């Protein structure tokens, strides 16, 4: 057997293995959540109850779905101006030099910091600041965890954005300059349209990272099982709920947590799928 066939078999085997792992995860979550689904049905998705009291157990995922989407989307909104500015700075305005190299190193460092470190920094620095400003009495809540999430996902959005911006053909930019376009007009009319799908991909990657984040959010969101009514309220995400309660859960509560894990998996898949559809339209 020649090396080309071995290489091809390795590639095919790797692809099949990834599919099997994904199918295995879905199957495990689905089987584990069957008792919860039989007990609550589709009402589990829109029920706001989370009562583990023996004899009257009742569980619903709505507060945690809302908490997950609210923190992730708010973090993405906070991230956008910073990540986009860094992308333009590194990809177009200052590609080489000491300062861009230093900034790239800092961005890479931010991507590698463990989430528990972000959580500790937020707990001892950001939480007291939020409380001092009167936004929340204790400093915990959706807003506090979203700010930390925003800092955590900036490297994912900015790195990919800078890469695709730097790949915009120079001939297109030179043609625009030759017609009298300013730097801003080149960015708006040439760079952003041509790099739009790649920039958007970076934000989808960042959103996926934010949806699944656990430790930092758990330390700062307040871990309330009520539906948040504003961005400064306490809340809970699906990931933080599982992290907090999975270790001591059993019986129906355990299967409810597994079903929440399945919902989180499905939401992440839907976000990635919609992101790919939008990227195809942007690149068309």
Automatic annotation (TrEMBL):
InterPro entries assigned: MetI-like, MetI-like_sf, Phosphate_PstC, Phosphate_Transport_Permease
Listed transmembrane segments: 7-31, 61-90, 102-121, 141-165, 186-206, 254-274
Bilayer topology annotation: Multi-pass membrane protein
Keyword Cell membrane: yes
Domain ABC transmembrane type-1 stretches: 65-275
Cellular location(s): Cell membrane
Keywords from the UniProt entry: Cell membrane, Membrane, Phosphate transport, Transmembrane, Transmembrane helix, Transport
Pfam families associated with the record: BPD_transp_1 (PF00528)
Key word Transport present: yes
PANTHER family named in the record: PHOSPHATE TRANSPORT SYSTEM PERMEASE PROTEIN PST, PHOSPHATE TRANSPORT SYSTEM PERMEASE PROTEIN PSTC
UniProt family annotation: Belongs to the binding-protein-dependent transport system permease family. CysTW subfamily.
Main function: Part of the binding-protein-dependent transport system for phosphate; probably responsible for the translocation of the substrate across the membrane.
Protein name: Phosphate transport system permease protein
Gene source species: Marinifilum caeruleilacunae
């Amino acid at each position: 057997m020649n090396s080309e066939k071995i290489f091809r078999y390795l590639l095919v085997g790797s692809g099949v293995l990834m599919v099997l792992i994904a199918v295995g995860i879905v199957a495990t979550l689905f089987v584990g959540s069957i008792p919860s689904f039989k007990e609550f049905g589709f009402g589990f998705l829109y029920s706001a109850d989370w009562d583990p009291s023996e004899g009257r157990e009742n569980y619903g995922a709505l507060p945690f779905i809302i908490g997950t989407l609210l923190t992730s989307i708010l973090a993405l909104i906070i991230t956008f101006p910073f990540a986009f500015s860094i992308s333009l700075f590194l990809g177009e305005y200052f590609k080489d030099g000491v300062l861009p190299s230093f900034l790239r190193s800092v961005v890479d460092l931010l991507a590698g910091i463990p989430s528990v470190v972000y959580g500790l920094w937020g707990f001892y620095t950001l939480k007291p600041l939020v409380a001092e400003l009167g936004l929340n009495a204790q400093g915990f809540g959706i807003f506090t965890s979203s700010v930390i999430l925003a800092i955590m996902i900036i490297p994912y959005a900015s790195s990919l954005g800078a890469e695709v911006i730097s790949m915009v053909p120079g001939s297109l930019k030179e043609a625009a300059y030759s017609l009298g376009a300013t730097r801003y007009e080149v960015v708006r009319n040439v760079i952003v349209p041509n790099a739009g799908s790649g920039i958007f991909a970076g934000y989808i990657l960042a959103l996926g990272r934010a949806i699944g984040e656990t430790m930092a959010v758990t330390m700062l969101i307040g871990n309330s099982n009520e539906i948040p009514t504003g961005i400064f309220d306490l809340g809970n995400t699906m990931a933080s709920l599982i992290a907090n309660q999975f270790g001591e859960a059993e019986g129906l509560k355990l299967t409810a947590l597994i079903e929440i894990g399945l919902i989180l998996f499905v939401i992440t898949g839907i976000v990635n799928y919609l992101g790919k559809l939008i990227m195809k339209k942007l690149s068309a």
